[in-house]
Design a protein that fits this description.
By secondary structure, this protein is α+β, with helices and mostly antiparallel strands. Helix content is 44%, strand content 24%. It is built from 8 helices and 9 strands. The strands form 2 sheets. A 5-stranded antiparallel β-sheet has the order 3-4-9-6-7. Strands 2-1-5-8 form a 4-stranded mixed β-sheet. Helix 2 crosses helix 4 and helix 7 packs antiparallel against helix 8. It is globular, with a radius of gyration of 22 Å.
Length: 247
């Protein structure tokens, strides 16, 4: 069936994204690590779980050729300057006695992954979702052995000098940007609940008193939620500090 759809897409000039192979690959990789968790990707062997939908979403992103770069910054600590910035703007870069400080305004947000969830960590091991969620920070010319990264005055993580020199993916850490992405996700979840209620009202037809008015109210609420999604998605500047770790 998948082969037929692929051939049909080529014939009609449509882009075709294969969900089956990535899901199969994830299941096979997962079975080698934890068969129980692997089975939860496709609990009834038909309908994907939320984690399974992430596998499919990853395939869709690849099919659409969406850039995996949330943002990418390279800073030269020796020269006190950024040598690279992609999909972001770095300003107010300065070097102090304890490290580096700057302001960063990314033009995109990382995925709203539940990073403390065991299933998410399992998903990161068996799929290439992290490769499509790149919020990179690379700092060269550092002298101390390890550094703590603070964003908006809150410690995010500690990294060794070598890790920072090679580049770290901040999309895999709890950051203010990740929390902002989650706020959009929460609003989208509220909208899905409104949509489900709307469907139930329409399905039951005229058997429910005040159905028309109720649907109009739901539509108004949905429009408000859409506006909230756009508001939550607006880029926000954040202050970064990379200071010598006191461990």
């Amino acid at each position: 069936y998948g082969n037929f759809i692929s051939q049909l897409g080529k014939k009609q000039g449509f882009t075709v994204v294969d969900f089956n192979q990535p899901m199969t690959d994830a299941l096979r990789a997962g079975m080698k690590i934890d068969p129980r968790m692997a089975g939860s990707l496709l609990p009834d062997r038909i309908h994907p779980s939320p984690a399974g939908h992430w596998v499919m979403a990853t395939a869709l992103v690849r099919g659409w050729n969406i850039s995996p770069i949330v943002s990418s910054v390279t800073v030269d600590a020796t020269g006190e300057s950024q040598t690279e910035q992609e999909n972001t703007t770095v300003s107010n870069l300065s070097k102090t006695a304890d490290g580096l400080h700057w302001t960063q305004l990314d033009r995109a947000l990382p995925l709203p992954l539940e990073l403390n969830d065991a299933m998410t960590q399992f998903l990161l091991k068996i799929s290439d979702i992290a490769a499509l969620d790149q919020q990179m920070l690379r700092v060269t010319g550092l002298t101390a052995a390890s550094y703590a990264l603070e964003i908006d005055d809150k410690k995010v993580a500690a990294f060794t000098r070598d890790e920072l020199s090679q580049g770290v993916n901040l999309a895999l850490y709890s950051t203010p940007m990740e929390q902002q992405a989650k706020s959009i996700d929460w609003t989208a979840d509220d909208r899905s609940k409104l949509s489900g209620t709307r469907f139930d009202l329409l399905f039951d037809g005229n058997t429910i008193p005040g159905e028309v008015g109720a649907i109009q109210t739901l539509d108004t609420l949905d429009a408000q939620e859409v506006n909230q999604e756009y508001k939550n998605a607006q880029p926000k500047p954040h202050t970064f500090a990379l200071v010598v770790d006191g461990r």
